[in-house]
Specification:
By secondary structure, the protein is of the alpha/beta class. The chain is 27% helix and 23% strand. The structure holds nicotinamide-adenine-dinucleotide and zinc ion (ZN).
């Protein structure tokens, strides 16, 4: 049984390393961000459970030679932000700037940046790679060895994965992109230049959820003729449905219990079938729709959603940090020999995991945070060719100052909210 207690008070000495000193490995170094205290910006800050507040902050400046500073034009709220919003993820501290899905215009360029100039429009990857370590050389940028100093993560997982923008001190304590300006380290690798005539709403999701949806189909090896079942009709799940069809899947089935989201996916991704798990068991629904079960099952939900009291109680008592029920449902529904792709975020330990189904049914399970940089050139091309339309999931565009409201409607699933994009006031958004 894990003794680890998740929450902002856990083991803060190691995770805050980045705030104190330069992280140097054999592959490069990252210095804690410096700021210009004479110039202020607005940023959405985490100040506790369900508490996002706009704060005035000093503007970040080029700190390492490979940095750029981006003037943010569009920045989203991601399902992963909800884990932080609900204080389910360890390592948050008051006044942390939120946001890992963002794009904008290059405002300042470090002397070692080779391919970017002031004024370029760029999308930033939510994962921060160094480009030099053994993982980055293998395009596993979200597993970068250089950019995350968290001792807590090393203790929990045996290794440190990549630093992520605005995603707790477990992943480096970087300030996020829900702000007027953001620093992007190793900028040649971690930004994608986008054409001046492509609207923000068509390219912003390359920063995370479109790349993640594609990653889900890569992990599940979705190909011609496959039947794909997707748990979670949020932005990631909906775009995974779109990507599955783009890769030749013959049938895509989405599972959720929020009626407007199930209707939304049917409207936006023609051909999708749906199961409302509050109306019938998922197993029964899948049996009706496909004889042997899906070839591929994609988990696009994540650990903070929990439907059974058994797991709610175990989590409340700190007997586990994550529920196993969705994964167990997936393991029992996917066909024998099937492929399971987990992109929904899990953070720690779970009880009652059906290891037997995994082994005896001969299943392949793959998981992980997305290496956006591996996919985004290809995905940009698919958008330009009209083969992917990521913007269909965007239901709300608002001023960054309205971030607290954006979080509330996205978390509560009110006002028909599927995906929120925010724009700092006066930013040069391409409409
Ligand atoms: P979201 O919260 O909007 O979507 C989750 C959906 O799952 C919701 O519609 C919810 O109603 C549904 N759901 C809840 N319980 C369910 C259940 N038992 N069965 C089926 N559906 C259920 O979030 P999103 O932006 O779509 O993100 C989805 C997940 O992907 C999150 O966990 C997020 O952290 C993760 N994510 C991972 C990566 C990565 O790199 N791996 C990147 C982005 C997001
Ligand atoms: Zn995300």
């Amino acid at each position: 049984m894990p003794s680890t207690k998740f929450g902002p008070t856990t083991d803060m000495a190691s995770p805050t390393l980045l705030a104190n000193k330069t992280l140097t490995t054999g592959h490069g170094s990252i210095t804690p961000s410096e700021h210009d205290s004479s110039r202020k910006m607005k940023a959405a800050a985490w100040n506790g459970k369900k508490t996002i507040e706009m704060e005035d902050r000093d503007i970040p400046v080029v700190t390492d030679g490979t940095d750029v500073i981006v003037q943010v034009t569009s920045t989203c709220i991601c399902g992963s932000d909800l884990h932080l919003y609900l204080n389910a993820m360890p390592g948050m501290q008051k006044h942390d700037v939120m946001g890992h899905e963002f794009m904008g215009v290059v405002h300042d360029v470090g002397p070692e940046v080779k391919n970017l100039q002031k004024g370029d429009r760029v999308v930033a990857a939510f994962d921060i790679g160094c480009g030099n370590c053994v993982y980055c050389k293998d395009q596993q940028f979200s597993l970068c060895d250089t950019t995350n100093p968290s001792g807590l993560q090393e203790k929990l997982y045996g290794h440190r994965t990549a630093g992520l923008h605005g995603y707790s001190h477990l992943t480096g304590g970087y300030e996020g992109g829900q702000a007027e300006y953001a620093r992007v380290p190793f900028a040649d690798l971690n930004t994608l230049k986008v054409p001046n005539d492509m609207p923000d709403r068509k390219v912003i999701l390359l920063s995370d959820v479109l790349s993640t949806a594609w990653h889900a189909t890569e992990l599940g090896d979705v190909h011609e003729g496959d039947i794909v079942a997707i748990w979670g009709a949020g932005p990631v799940g909906i775009l995974a449905a779109q990507c599955s069809f783009a890769r030749g899947a013959k049938q895509v089935i989405m599972i959720d219990n929020v009626p407007f989201r199930l209707q939304f996916v049917k409207d936006k991704v023609p051909g999708v079938q749906t199961i409302n798990f509050s109306e019938k068991s998922v197993k029964e629904g899948l049996n009706e729709l496909c004889e042997h079960g899906p070839h591929v099952a994609i988990e696009a939900v994540g650990f903070h959603y929990c439907k059974s009291w058994t797991h709610k109680i175990q989590m409340a008592l700190m007997l586990e940090t994550d529920p196993s029920e969705m994964l167990n449902e997936i393991l029992t529904c996917v066909r024998k020999g099937g492929r399971v792709s987990i992109v929904g975020v899990y953070a720690g330990f779970t009880n009652g995991f059906n290891i037997g189904a995994l082994m005896e049914k001969g299943l392949t399970v793959k998981a992980g945070q997305t290496p956006c940089q591996k996919y985004w050139h290809h995905l940009l091309k698919l958008i330009q060719e009209g083969k992917l339309q990521p913007e269909v999931v965007i239901t709300h565009e608002m001023d960054l100052d309205e971030a607290p409201k954006g979080y509330q409607i996205f978390n509560d699933k009110t006002d028909g909210c599927v995906k929120v994009v925010m724009h700092p006031r006066g930013a040069p958004v391409v409409a």
